[in-house]
Structures are given as C-alpha cells and as structure tokens.
Specification:
alpha/beta
C-alpha cells in the first residue's frame, strides 16, 4: 500500500512454529496459563504448512491458549481460518482500510476492488463460522468524500453481524526527510 511506512522493508519469515510453541509454553508456565498473546508481525501471512505445524506443536505440548493477530485482507485465505481457530486464534484485527473502490485504488491496496471486497467478505464469514472475532481497521485516507465514506459505511453495515469491533483513524505520515516530502507531494 502506498501509505505503509514499512513498504520498502523486506518481510521477514515468521518464527518457526516449534519456537512459538516453546516460548508460549514457557510464558504460560510463568503466568499459570493466563496469557492472551498478540502475534505481532508487520504482515502476518502464515502458510498452510506453518499453521499445520503450529497446530501440531500446540497439540503435542498441550497448549490451549487463545491468541490474537493482525493481518490484511490479502494475507490470509478463508480456507486457512478453521485451522487457525483450531490453533487458538480468537481475535483477528483485519486491515480492510476502506470499502470504497476509489479509495482502495488511491491507497494502492488493490487494482481489483471488487475481488478485494469479496475476499474480505469471505474472510469475515470464515472467521464468524469458526468463532474468531474480527476487528476491522479503517483508514481515513486523503481524498475521502461523503460518497467514499458512504460506500465504506454501507459495506460495514452489510457485514456487521460478522464484525466484533471497528477501528477508524486518519492517515498520519511517519516518513522522514525527502521521502516524506515526496510522498506528501504525491498524495497532494
């Protein structure tokens, strides 16, 4: 997305599932099992194999911990959601950003807004069917109008039974120096 401060930073691999299970096991022991971890990643995009290994490692160690993660509409496939729920995912913060086709293009989230929004709906349905709460993140991006806000609001209303929470905030530029000036000029 063109607004991401980490857009030029290469993605790093997720920690191996065995390492995650081991660390959660140790941490849960310290807190008598009462932990609710947040899987922090700039882009949580696990492979199906990673999810299967996490499930297996959790089962092998007897880990039954509810956890939370943040991802984007293009980061998870609906067919992965049941396995993630089985591995303990309870809350998914989903970066939708907008449901306005114009704003999605301006943000450079997608070149195909209709497919993007269908995928978002499919993820929400899969989460609801598997007991995962979703908090949808909306970004108020330069160029918002009453019409673009109406499009987003109507989409959210149409999917409200599958959304547990909503986070809405304006875009803030966190870049520095020439990069900031260039980006501000671009969105201006």
């Amino acid at each position: 997305c063109n607004f991401c401060a980490e857009a030029a930073v290469p993605l790093s691999a997720l920690r191996p599932p065995t390492a995650v299970a081991e660390e959660l096991s140790r941490t849960a022991a310290v807190y008598a099992g009462e932990i609710r971890p947040y899987f922090q990643a700039s882009f949580f995009r696990p492979t199906s194999r990673w999810i299967e290994e996490l499930q297996s490692d959790f089962h092998h160690r007897g880990i039954a911990i509810s956890w939370r993660a943040e991802s984007r509409v293009d980061g998870l496939a609906p067919n992965q959601i049941a396995s993630l729920a089985s591995a303990g995912l309870k809350v998914l913060d989903l970066g939708l950003e907008s449901a306005s086709p114009l704003q999605l293009r301006r943000m450079e989230k997608t070149s195909n807004p209709d497919a993007y929004l269908r995928r978002a709906a499919a993820l929400l349905i899969a989460c609801a069917e598997n007991g995962i709460w979703t908090k949808v993140n909306i970004l108020l991006f330069p160029g918002e109008t009453q019409e673009t806000l109406r499009e987003t609001t109507e989409w959210l209303d149409a999917h409200r039974r599958m959304i547990k929470g909503l986070s809405v905030g304006p875009m803030i530029v966190f870049r520095y120096g020439d990069e900031s000036r260039e980006y501000l000029q671009k969105i201006r």
